[in-house]
UniProtKB/TrEMBL annotation:
It catalyses: Hydrolysis of (1->6)-alpha-D-glucosidic linkages in some oligosaccharides produced from starch and glycogen by alpha-amylase, and in isomaltose. The keyword Hydrolase applies. It comes from Paenibacillus sophorae. The lineage of its organism: Bacteria, Bacillati, Bacillota, Bacilli, Bacillales. GO terms for biological process: oligosaccharide catabolic process. NCBIfam families: PRK10933.1. This is oligo-1,6-glucosidase. It comes from the Bacteria.
Length: 560
């Protein structure tokens, strides 16, 4: 397998609005991020993924771009960005920018110009359809129709996300050229990587046929399966690679909802010169019911393990994966599938172990390294996410469901669970800033914060540092072949990684049960590399696992 720097990297995701407010406006900013670079360097991460910082009216908090060439006012200036980029580089780290290709803000100059009927230059930058009703029954990811009528344009426009995020028409040559030069602009400024947002949605079927609303995909809006991975999407990525990526020492990671491992291989097989790696959703949707994301069913470790194993084996040696359980769109996994009260530290460490020892690039989402948890605001007025607010409005005000019932769904799955301010210390507002932030701080910040974690050798933070150190020390973690162990076990996820004469054994108990497991006889006496409980000397054939216990062993295959 080709060895590259980015396959060996650990990536840290920053949601800039909630990371650190340096100028006292209650909103995170670029200077605030710069203040915390030494913290990130000491954590051991290699790449910093900056959520969107372009000018935006913030309907979707930066994912609605009104100018790709300007920095959002609240985050600072282009000089601040240049300084941050340089400070990241001089610490030997790299910067990944979030690139939103599928849509712009409706306040972007292109969209405003495209409203003018007959404006042939810009009309085809978006999907405009004349007529007296929506062209089909497609629904937005954020609820309601995916079509909005505009009086000025006297036509409907497509928006797969919020009504203020009109979809760009990637079949239009001039639009593609605009986007390629925008990407080169940022790469010329020193960007080392792109996270490509919702990028397998770029191609829309020409005939706009109705979808079957009864078949909402778990992670795609109803009818989303008609759109994801559209015909011609690979041609676009091969053109994008040729026009942009191949000309720079950079790497790409594509965020793709609704994609299978087979499709993931087609996107990331290096021989196809499209994309370098993929952040998929299948494993994060195992607790979504038939109605989609807001309908939560019990977590199934069996389903989870089967998906992980399928992706590990399908892409092994050819493609590459972004490994994650947390991000700005997901509730925090320690609350979602762990136990954030009695076993917050143990379960946070267990999830990290499970993810960091797989083949791929591990992503750490801000706050997961200190075991930050979900939030529960009593009032919908305290929530900020457009998807959450739309859900509440549709479910309560249109469908008539009770506040309590809908808030239960929101506590489980709202994206705001991951967007409360980073908890730096136990001072006011958790050290995020000096004024009331744009969204409330989690009340547990006096217990859960960076300062307390740094002072506690047994903290989640120190455990993450150890996991990252192991990755730097043992090539088997990056390049070793994956094979599952205890596949039938419903509470334990165990697997093996092998490279040359080394075998790694990773055992994670996803339950609160005490269990005995038999991993079989290793080739040689394994040594314990890391555990989230005080180590016990047992053979791999009779391991006693405590609630959410995780262990990593290393065995040498041939005794030389
Ligand atoms: O979080 C989801 C909806 O509940 C995902 O389906 C997500 O919206 C989708 O995968 C695309 O996410 C990306 O694009 C969105 C933005 O809101 C998300 O924050 C971003 O990660 C539109 O730009």
């Amino acid at each position: 397998m080709t060895r590259t720097w980015w396959k060996e990297a650990v990536i840290y995701q920053i949601y800039p609005r909630s990371f650190r407010d340096s100028d006292g406006d209650g909103i995170g900013d670029l200077k605030g991020i710069e203040e915390k670079l030494d913290y990130l360097k000491e954590l051991g991460v290699d790449v910093i993924w900056l959520g969107p910082v372009y000018k935006s009216p913030n309907d979707d908090y930066g994912y609605d771009v009104s100018d790709y060439y300007e920095i959002m006012d609240e985050f600072g200036s282009m000089e601040d960005w240049t300084s941050l980029c340089s400070e990241i580089h001089c610490r030997g780290m790299k910067i990944m920018m979030d690139i939103i290709l599928n849509h712009t803000s409706d306040e972007h100059a292109w969209f405003q110009a495209s409203k003018t009927p007959g404006n042939i230059s810009f009309r085809d930058y978006y999907y405009w359809r004349e007529g007296d009703s929506e062209p089909n029954n497609w629904e937005s990811f954020f609820g309601g129709s995916a079509w909005k009528y505009d009086e000025e344009a006297r036509a409907y426009y497509l928006h797969l996300f919020s009504v203020k995020q009109p979809d760009l028409n990637w079949s239009h040559d001039a639009l593609r050229k605009e986007m390629y030069s925008m990407m080169r602009f940022w790469l010329d400024k020193g960007v080392d990587a792109f996270r490509l947002d919702a990028v397998n949605l770029l191609v829309k079927p020409g005939e706009w046929q109705d979808g079957e609303p009864a078949e909402p995909d778990h992670c795609l809006a109803p009818c989303g399966h008609l759109i994801a991975n559209g015909e011609g999407i690979h041609d676009i990525f091969q053109e994008m690679n040729n026009e942009v990526f191949s000309r720079y020492p950079m790497f790409t990671v594509a965020e793709m909802a609704g994609v299978s491992a087979e499709e993931g291989l087609l996107y990331t097989d290096s021989a196809r010169k499209e994309l370098d790696s993929i952040i998929y959703f299948e494993h994060m949707d195992v607790d979504n019911g038939p109605g989609g994301r807001w309908e939560t069913i019990p977590f199934s470790l069996q389903a989870f393990k089967q998906i992980i194993t399928r992706w590990q084996i399908k892409l092994q040696g050819k493609g590459w994966i972004g490994l994650y359980l947390n991000n700005h769109d997901q509730p925090r996994v320690v609350s979602r599938w762990g136990n954030d009260i009695r076993y917050r530290v143990e379960s946070a460490k267990m999830f990290a172990t499970c993810i960091h020892m797989l083949q791929g690039s591990p992503y750490i989402y801000q706050g997961e390294e200190i075991g930050m948890t979900n939030i529960r605001f009593d009032s919908i007025q305290d929530y900020r996410d457009v998807e959450t607010l739309n859900y509440y409005r549709i479910e309560c005000e249109i469908k008539g469901r009770s506040h309590e019932e809908v808030m239960r769904d929101i506590y489980l799955k709202s994206r705001d669970n991951a967007r409360t301010p980073m908890q730096w210390d136990d001072s006011n507002y958790a050290g995020f800033g000096t004024v009331q932030p744009w969204i409330d701080v989690n009340p547990n910040y006096k217990e859960v914060n960076v300062e307390k974690a740094l002072a506690d050798p047994g903290s989640v933070l120190h455990y993450y540092r150890e996991l990252i150190r192991l990755r730097k020390r043992h090539e088997v973690i990056v390049y070793g072949d994956y094979s599952p162990l205890l596949e039938e076990h419903s509470d334990v996820f165990a697997y093996r990684r092998t490279l040359n004469d080394e075998t790694l054994f990773v055992i994670t108990n996803f339950s609160e049960k005490e269990l005995i497991v038999d991993l079989g006889e290793p080739a040689s006496e394994p040594s314990l590399l890391l555990a989230n409980y005080p180590p016990e000397e047992e053979p791999l054939t009779a391991l006693r696992l405590r609630p959410f216990e995780a262990r990593i062993y290393l065995a040498r295959n041939n005794i030389s």
